[in-house]
Amino acid sequence: MSVSSMKKLSVLTPCSEADAVVRRLMRLRCVEIRKTQTDGLSSCNYDAEVASAEQQVRRVSEALPVLTKYTRRKSSLKRRLIKISDESFKKTGSYSTAWSVVDEVLEIKAEIVRCNDSEKKTAERITALLPWQALEIPLGFAGTDTSAHIIGTVPQTADVDRLSANLAESLATVEIISRDNSTAYISVIYHRAAEEKVNRILSEYGFVKAGFSGVDTTAAAEIARLAEELPTYDVKLQQYKDRLCTLAEVLDDVEILYDVAETSLLAARNKQKLASTEMCVMLEGWVPADRKSVVAAELSKLYCAYEMKEPEGEDVPPVLLKNNGYATNFEWVVGMYSYPKYGSYDPTFIMSIFYFVIFGLMFADVGYGLILTLAGLIAPKVLGFKPGLKRMFNMFGYCGISSMFMGVLFGGWFGDLPYAIMENMMGMENAKETVPFFNGLLFNPIDDPIAFLVVSLAMGAVHLIAGMAVKFYLLCREGKWFDAIFDVGSWWLIFGGIAVLILVGTLPGGIMIGVGALMIIFASGRATKNPILRFLKGLLGLYDITSYASDLLSYCRILALGLAAGVISQVVNLIGTMSGATVGGFIALILSFLLGHGLNLAINILGTFVHTSRLQYLEFFNKFYEDGGEEFKPAEPSAKYSTVECDICLDGAVGNGEQT
Prior knowledge:
By secondary structure, the chain is an alpha+beta fold. Among the domains are: 134-217, Alpha-Beta Plaits (2-Layer Sandwich), CATH 3.30.70; 327-627, no CATH class. 58% of the residues lie in helices and 11% in strands. It has 22 helices and 16 strands. It has helices at 18-28, 47-70, 88-91, 94-129, 160-168, 195-204, 219-247, 251-271, 292-299, 331-337, 348-362, 366-383, 387-410, 417-424, 431-434, 449-477, 481-503, 506-524, 531-541, 544-553, 556-577, 583-620, and strands at 2-3, 6-14, 32-34, 42-43, 82-85, 147-155, 172-179, 183-191, 208-209, 275-276, 280-288, 305-309, 321-322, 339-340, 627-629, 642-645. Strands 2, 3, 4, 10, 11 and 12 form a 6-stranded antiparallel β-sheet that branches. A 4-stranded antiparallel β-sheet has the order 7-8-6-9, with helices on one face. Helix 11 runs antiparallel to helix 22 (583-620). The model is unreliable at 647-652 and 656-660 (pLDDT under 50).
């Protein structure tokens, strides 16, 4: 359709009013705030405000998953969007209540972590004490003035009897407390005078001292104490969870708080784009021309001076595509390539028509198309998708309609599923002759691939000529009639001559081709003054016929994609019906349908999307497209969970956020 005209917005306001101005513009959702580049002014420093806002967003983001886990609110696949009035959230106390809930949730979360950690350590402590529960003296008992006591472990492979005998020579005794598969737990009492020799002998046997110093009770008593302590952690955890369930009752307010905090962060980041003097700040941005009056009305309510004017000099306005309800769903496809340069032609509408048709040709199947249509057009409404995701799904939904239509023409009903059932499960012979409807109203590409190749190339010819027609129109709009006739019209004469040559006869076709060739030779080198070089460049211009031929052959991929989906479907149907009308056969049919057709659908949606887009980008756009535009990205408040009802009319808002 068209690229929206933009107005350059400049606002001057006292520093104290900067936040109010930025937030009001954000609520309008139709102003892109740019980095202000003005000589003599310094950049605004809102680093502290940004850091504070980021911390608030992090805290709310950390609390939300916890509350969501414990909420009793009914879950739903549909996206919830809470509507709130402009100031009531803060005035009613919900704002402060939500923050107190966030603070308590984070505190409880930390307590739960500490409680779980303590419970784990207690359980590990009990496990470590179990091998020592037969020891009848306190674990931390170190001995008397003349004798010492230590406990520890040696490997199970160590000869404890030999160790005991060696230590006996040093006035030491060894007692085995317990054993397991890898370790022996021992208690050693020795005379302090022989401590050095005892330690050396123990080291030779791989002795490791146990770390229970300071424990003045026996292992059995310590285990009993810790066992009594363990249930208290479960009680605490349950109390914390019960409290979280209670706090989760205000989950809606905390979700709204997230949007409030995120909006404050966005506002702070936008304020960093401003320039300032000691007393005032200056804001620069872009506004769609058709929203000029709305922005002016709102700024007039604030303490500021503003101006909206046409782009000038080195200004690079952002690009906002303006299309009808159908073509809008295809704008993101154009954006994947590159937005058109500001002031140039927006190809979205005409591209969407060809995208619709070519996608249907590549994916010509009634069953698959029906699934695409239901998923693309109904699911976004039922599940409440965000605008960007909704447009993407809607595009595939429209393409599903094309797929169904082409499926009727070319006989795609989950491949040949009706005939597979008729022949393999119902025993019907010559099903295609008996019921020809399912084999395509025109023809079946698998039965007649040459005919489908002709259709593919014909579609390609129309697509290429349409691209040239757009170029012809743009040249005429710029007053370049000579360029339009000789650079574009000459090729139309050649293409028409080729068609006449094939369909009618040599003479009229040859004349048309000759005239077109002479026009190219005459005009291609017209910028060159040297007549010989001009003639040679004109001859070289005829070489472009190879480029057009190459572009046309690219449309063979329509045939390739169409046959790929159809052949895979036929194989899946054969596998699913080859067992006949038996219980096992019906089970095989259902499984093959769900798995085989599901996989085929997923693979070919991706393939069809990629190759349909490629034909637009490389074969269609290169005939006329002038890219290089920057997408218009208006400043908007956060709308992840809520949308604001306020006195500002947002009808027709141009941003990607929610509208009221």
